[in-house]
Amino acid sequence: MAKKTAAATAGAHGEDAVPTARTAAAPEELAVRPGEDPWTSAEVDEARTALMEETVRLRLEITTAEDAIAGLMRDSGDGAGDDEADTGTKNITREHELALASNAREMLHQTERALSRLDAGTYGLCENCGKPIGKARMQAFPRATLCVECKQQQERR
């Protein structure tokens, strides 16, 4: 998985060391279900690129939502001259923007976690049972952390 350099090893023994960049897991180290072809470098690169693009998109979405929320807060003023419908509309709009920002933050967290798991070589392993999630599922939903069986159990609860 991640390789240690002499500097990183020295740091593990209490000596001063310069942090080193992690080495990404090799594609063949990533989990697949029985009968599936191993991950190829191109497939891993495609997954990484898609996740990184999603990270950029989500950061922009969060910034846009936060700007909209700031504008709504600034424009809310004291509400003088607003009737109940205007106040209600402003509140609903503000709550909607807050929900969008919260959802985007959660998706960003999941996307960054998927990138970390890709680097660590645990991408494609179910976080619940430890079995392979399945390459096709990971390609369809790159942020997946549970196999289909565990996800179904989670949804039944």
What does this structure look like?
With 157 residues, the protein is mostly helical. The protein has a single domain, classed as Up-down Bundle (Four Helix Bundle (Hemerythrin (Met), subunit A)). It is 61% helix and 0% strand. It is built from 5 helices and no strands. It has helices spanning 6-12, 41-76, 84-120, 135-140, 148-156. The radius of gyration is 22 Å and the shape is elongated. The protein starts with 5 loop residues before the first helix and ends with a helix. Mean pLDDT is 82; it is low at 1-22. Residues 1-40, 73-92 are annotated as: Disordered. It comes from Streptomyces lydicus. This is DNA-binding protein. Keywords: DNA-binding, Metal-binding, Zinc, Zinc-finger. It holds the Pfam family zf-dskA_traR.
How many structural domains can be distinguished in the coordinates? 1
Largest sheet: none
Count all strands and give the number: 0
| CATH homologous superfamily caption | DksA, coiled-coil domain
